[in-house]
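# nightly structure sweep
# worker-07 picked up a monomer target from the shared queue
# config: single-sequence mode, recycle default, output format = structure tokens
# input follows
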Amino acid sequence: MEYLFKTMKKFLNWKLFLLLIVILAAFLRFYQLGSIPSGFHSDEASFGYNAYSILLTGKDEHSSPSPLIFKSFGDPGAVYSYLTIPSIAIFGLTEFAVRLPTAILGFIFVLLSYLIVFNLTGNKKLSLLTTFLVAVNPLSIFLSRVQSDPLVSVFFVLLGFYCFLLWKDKDRVYLLLFSAFFWITSIFTYASPRALLPVLFLSILFFYFKKFTFGQRRAFILILLIVTIINLLVIIGASQRFKQLSIFNAPIVMLTMEENIREDQGGNVIVTRAFHNKIVNHFLVVSKNYFDYFSYDFLFLKGGQPEREKIPDMGILYIIELPFLLYGIYLSLKNKERWGKLTLFLVLVFPLAISFAVDESPNVHRYYINILFLELLIAFGFLGFFNNLKKHLILYKPIIVLLILFSVFNFSYFIHQLFVHQPLHQPWYRGYAYKELVSELSKIDKNYKKIIFTKEYGSPYIYVLFFKKYDPKKYQKTGSLGDLDNKGFDNYVFVPEKCPLISKVDKQGNILVQGKKGFLYVNRGDCPDLGKDVKLMKTIYWKDKNPAFKIIEYIGK
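# output follows
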């Protein structure tokens, strides 16, 4: 009876701790979801509007029926839009509805972390601590609060990995089929799994293949071939995105090599070709990208690209985690268990797979898969440190108090930066002003022949479609040309000029405004004032009070 009581007590303590982690994770991901982070990026609007379009018409904005890959914004996978359809059907076309699938899967990702780590290690304390660290991880929280197909794709990759771990132990075919399904789904969700999955497969083959039965080997190789073939077909089909990302097609990489050749100023041709060729040049770029992912700035101080996913003065980990990460790496090398070596291997090799992408590097979207494995190493180092600390009773309490204080400060600083500074910090990266701008234009747009709209900040057409809840069937009938220069829909025309309505000075010194009567113009906020012949309808401001746009009517002389 006494043994049963102790067992129940341990069980309840474990359940309570996990419950508290779950509650904390939910609060950090759902509280003020529609408004923090401030602003709504064009990618979010695009996925939301395409989900809205598929819900109402069965086609995306470009009239493609039930697509797996969209044509807009660099061939993104369409899975996220399908996940968004239920929330838009319930809550309407809103920022909250578009972000909700990420928040839900970001929340479940915390629970999945526990399942994966416990399956790998069999250590309940280590699993709970890793789960807690994932729950409060800055990058995990931030990406869970925006439309984030990168987070969703990583969720599917790791869910497939968890099904694999179950299959490895239970040898049930349906578990391996689930793995394949989730891995293939991740390929159609975001681009990075197309590079990360081969690394995961090689890791599995290296660390587990010898432990498989003969039947398991055949089954896994068959699944691996199927997923790999589909992956290759998707890469070929989404060639536009591949060309955008690959160092082998990046003009800046080739220009650097050509500049080096020119600077040799007619020296020995053999020496020039030995030092300045594609192999050397690409190696330098890849190595720089790779080691950027291990830099102090990226991990603990500034984070990475894209700018819209940055929290001011925050990395993707807390500074307090640094010593435990280093100690966890040491212990994983010292420890002979397979999971430690596998974890460290993935942490080291995943960044190599994404270092061949040249733009926006180091990139938090592509790197996100490493968060779980980093936090596992940190948790391992943390537990190892405290097991040793218990032997020194004099130091135990003071060090515990200092670490708690530093940890609370570190976490509180992050929350302050997210909820107070992020809304004001460079708000143009998240398109903060577009909601108010479209709202103001919607009140008056029917009164004008044309609305000439600057594209200086990206792709404004998608904001007009999203915030006006524009009829998708009607937009499809226009030819879906909104993202092209000097094209649009209804009376909206989107132009590349920063200041569509401009003025010039004639030979007599008179200021002449170049515009058409009955036209409304949307200039950037820093375009010069035009004086006469125009009527400034409204200035739209970023959240930091800097002018974003000027709505101007040309009234003529």
